[in-house]
């Protein structure tokens, strides 16, 4: 292993990335826009989960002539939308645009629901429960102890990790295949540079760029959302570093062979899409079928996110997340070994 | 001449004459097959140190495939390649420089950064200033790779091939796509490399380039080396004929008087003769106006035509 040669490739790749203004800008703009956008959508106090259509249009849900129970009118996470007629509202309900439809003048409290919609069934239960007279004594209410975790604090590590995943897979896997296709790798093959030196330089360059992006995006968005980190920043940085190592090493495996950008693009999507949806970037898979949860554990993104959220949201230490860290290290070593075995400069 | 694709009668294999210890490269029974297509067929040749050796042939002849096997870029299906009489070792890459026909560089790097990047890959690199001067890169050092003209890019590629002070330089179609001025500039650089005592192996489909730069030429067609020698001896051996060209009007409609084999090319009569002096004497004796005469001596393209029955550009 010659570090001078590695350094030459590392700096060349960094120059390439920082000078590609479009790619460079998008790398920061994408996570920043996602975080800010979703932060405002899901982070506010008036966040709405269910949509209830009401008619006629000229009567508001809290008007004096409304027959809607006051508990339902004031229900949290409910948004009321006026429609001119029952037909108009029913059309929206049929297409899952709203979750329940109410006739606000009806003494019989007439309502319509969509039998095929889970949200509709939930809102129906909320609506029916709002007619209970002695609501306070039906069940005993307890609040979660300790500091409340805001949705944005739960979501933020997921968006950072997702951006890291795309950056690592595409920035390494796709780019190296493009270099192979246009002959840039063939030119390097004619030099004393070894595959391990080249692949390591590519990986470290990408990790440097990913960590740089995370720091910039974190500082930028923190001015808006004031993220709550209950654990150590150092531990969090280490977990993200291990995560970027494992993601980049997967990218290197994909980059090891092939000259078709189209094929590589398909494989990258095949890997990144399930990883994004099953690794709890956007939503929890708690309660999903056991095989889905088992499959999710195959992905390093799952372990990265579990560790990051434990540190950020629960104040966990590195010792608490050691199993996740070990899995990320093992993934990295396995993929690096595989990539260096499979690698070809020109095939 | 009827074309025989296998050239059994004229294939020249100097295996017995190979003297590995005196040669920088020995190629012995080299073949390369891609599926059903045999791109290179049992090729053998050797290259002496300090010469410019050319592989000449039309597109698809197998020149680049042969070259890339010698460069250790692709593996041969069979055969052996020796460097200084030994199988190539890891140090081979430290001692060779390659200019590929089809390759690419990082678009957003400048010429200077590209040179420095490659400079760091070698143990004993060339001085960057000397390289810049030799390849005339001074005015474009700060320019990005994707903003270079074809000639400038070729000069940069040549500089990269020389960055490690190579003992052996491979040039794959170095002047393809260049305008005449850029081509001549490139040839000057190649001559200076040769003057430094470095060995050059190059491929080309330009007979002019081969005649100008190469000390020895192997002519390839359809995966075979059909002959191999100095350009002068190839012409002497395979195509000694010269041609005298005269406008048809010079014969005053008396074409039957032409004492040589001839053919009409537009309004020009092309006569094939053995010796120019004898031909001229004969024509002067016939009282033919020679004021618009042109003489064409055989070149490597004619050699290729004589050997294969087709032109280099067919």
The SSE order of chain B reads: EEEHEEHEHHHEHEHEEHEEEHEH
CATH class of the largest domain in chain B: Alpha Beta
Report the radius of gyration of chain B as a whole number of Å: 23 Å
Using only CA atoms, what is the Rg of chain A? 26 Å
Question: What is the overall silhouette of chain B?
Answer: globular
**Tell me, what's the shape of chain A?**
elongated
Explain what this protein looks like in three dimensions:
The complex is a heterodimer of chains A (347) and B (314). Chain A is elongated. In chain A, helix 2 runs antiparallel to helix 6 (151-182). Chain A has helices spanning 3-19, 21-43, 70-73, 86-94, 118-129, 151-182, 184-189, 195-225, 233-255, 261-278, 290-296, 300-314, 322-342; strands at 50-55, 78-82, 100-103, 111-113. Helices cover 63% and strands 5% of the residues of chain A. Chain A has a four-stranded mixed sheet. Chain A starts with a helix and ends in a 5-residue tail after the last helix. Chain A is mostly helical and 347 residues long. The mean pLDDT of chain A is 86. Chain B is α/β, with parallel strands linked by helices and 314 residues long. Chain B has two domains: 15-237, 3-Layer(aba) Sandwich (Rossmann fold), CATH 3.40.50.300; 241-297, Alpha-Beta Plaits (2-Layer Sandwich). Chain B contains ten helices and 14 strands. Chain B has helices at residues 63-70, 92-95, 111-119, 128-134, 150-162, 180-195, 207-213, 231-238, 276-285, 300-308; strands spanning 23-34, 37-48, 52-56, 78-83, 86-87, 96-99, 168-172, 199-204, 216-221, 224-229, 242-247, 262-265, 268-273, 294-296. Chain B has a six-stranded mixed sheet, with helices on both faces. A four-stranded antiparallel sheet of chain B has the order 2-1-4-5, covered by helices on one side. A four-stranded antiparallel sheet of chain B has the order 12-13-11-14. In chain B, a hairpin with a 2-residue loop joins strand 1 (23-34) and strand 2 (37-48). In chain B, 38% of the residues are buried. The A-B interface holds A 4-5, 7-9, 11-13, 15-16, 19-20, 179, 182-184, 186-187, 189-193, 345-346 and B 71, 73-74, 90, 93-94, 96-98, 100, 102-109, 113, 116-118, 120-123, 160, 164.
């Amino acid at each position: 292993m010659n570090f001078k040669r590695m350094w030459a490739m590392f700096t060349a790749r960094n120059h390439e990335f920082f000078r590609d203004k479009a790619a460079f800008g998008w790398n920061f703009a994408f996570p920043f826009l996602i975080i800010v956008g979703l932060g405002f959508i899901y982070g506010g106090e008036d966040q709405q989960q269910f949509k209830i259509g009401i008619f006629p249009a000229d009567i508001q849900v809290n008007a004096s002539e409304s027959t809607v129970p006051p508990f339902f009118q004031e229900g949290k996470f409910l948004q009321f939308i006026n429609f001119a007629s029952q037909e108009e509202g029913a059309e929206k309900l049929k297409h899952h645009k709203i979750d329940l439809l109410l006739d606000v003048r009806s003494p019989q409290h007439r309502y319509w629901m969509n039998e095929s919609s889970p949200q509709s069934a939930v809102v129906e239960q909320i609506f029916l429960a709002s007619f209970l007279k002695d609501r306070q004594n039906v069940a005993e209410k307890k609040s979660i102890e300790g500091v409340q975790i805001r949705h944005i604090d739960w979501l933020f590590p997921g968006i950072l990790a997702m951006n890291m995943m795309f950056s690592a897979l595409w920035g390494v896997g796709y780019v190296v295949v493009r270099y192979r296709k246009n002959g840039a790798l063939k030119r390097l093959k004619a030099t004393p540079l070894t595959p391990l030196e080249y692949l390591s330089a590519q990986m470290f360059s990408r990790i440097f760029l990913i960590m740089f992006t995370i720091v910039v995006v974190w500082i930028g968005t923190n001015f808006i959302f004031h993220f709550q980190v209950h654990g150590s920043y150092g531990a969090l940085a280490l977990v993200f570093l291990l995560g970027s190592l494992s993601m980049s090493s997967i990218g290197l495996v994909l980059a090891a062979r092939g000259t078709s950008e189209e094929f590589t693009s398909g494989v990258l999507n095949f890997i990144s899409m399930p990883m994004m949806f099953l690794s709890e970037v956007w939503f929890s898979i708690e309660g999903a079928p056991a095989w889905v949860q088992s499959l999710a554990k195959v992905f390093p993104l799952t372990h990265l996110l579990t560790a990051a959220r434990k540190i950020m949201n629960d104040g966990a230490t590195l010792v608490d997340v050691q199993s996740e860290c070990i899995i990320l290290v093992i993934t990295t070593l396995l993929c690096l070994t595989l990539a260096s075995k499979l690698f070809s400069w020109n095939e | 001449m009827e074309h025989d694709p296998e050239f059994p009668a004229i294939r020249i294999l100097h295996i017995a004459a190979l003297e590995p210890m005196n040669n920088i490269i020995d190629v012995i029974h080299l073949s390369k097959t891609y599926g059903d297509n045999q791109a290179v067929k049992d090729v053998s040749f050797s290259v002496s140190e300090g010469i410019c050796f050319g592989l000449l042939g039309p597109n698809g002849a197998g020149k680049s495939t042969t070259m890339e096997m010698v460069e250790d870029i692709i593996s041969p299906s069979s055969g052996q390649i020796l460097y200084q009489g030994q199988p190539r070792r890891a140090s081979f890459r430290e001692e060779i420089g390659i200019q590929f026909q089809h390759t690419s560089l990082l678009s957003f790097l400048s010429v200077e950064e590209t040179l420095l990047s490659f400079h760091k890959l070698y143990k004993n690199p060339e001085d960057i200033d000397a390289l810049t001067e030799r390849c005339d890169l001074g005015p474009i050092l700060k320019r990005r790779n994707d903003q270079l003209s074809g000639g400038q890019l070729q000069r940069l590629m040549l500089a990269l091939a020389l960055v490690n002070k190579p003992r052996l330089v491979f040039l794959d179609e170095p002047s393809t796509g260049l305008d005449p001025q850029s081509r001549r500039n490139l040839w000057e650089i190649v001559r200076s490399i040769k003057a430094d005592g470095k060995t050059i192996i190059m491929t080309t489909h330009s007979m002019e380039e081969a005649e100008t730069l190469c000390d020895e030429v192997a002519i390839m067609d359809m995966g075979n080396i059909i002959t191999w020698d100095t350009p002068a001896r190839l012409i002497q051996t395979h195509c000694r004929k010269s041609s005298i060209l005269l406008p048809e009007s010079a014969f005053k409609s008396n074409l039957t008087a032409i004492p040589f084999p001839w053919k009409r090319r537009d309004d020009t009569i092309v006569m094939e003769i053995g010796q120019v002096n004898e031909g001229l004497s004969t024509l002067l004796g016939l009282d033919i106006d020679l004021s618009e005469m042109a003489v064409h001596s055989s070149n490597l393209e004619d050699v290729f035509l004589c050997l294969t029955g087709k032109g280099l550009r067919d």
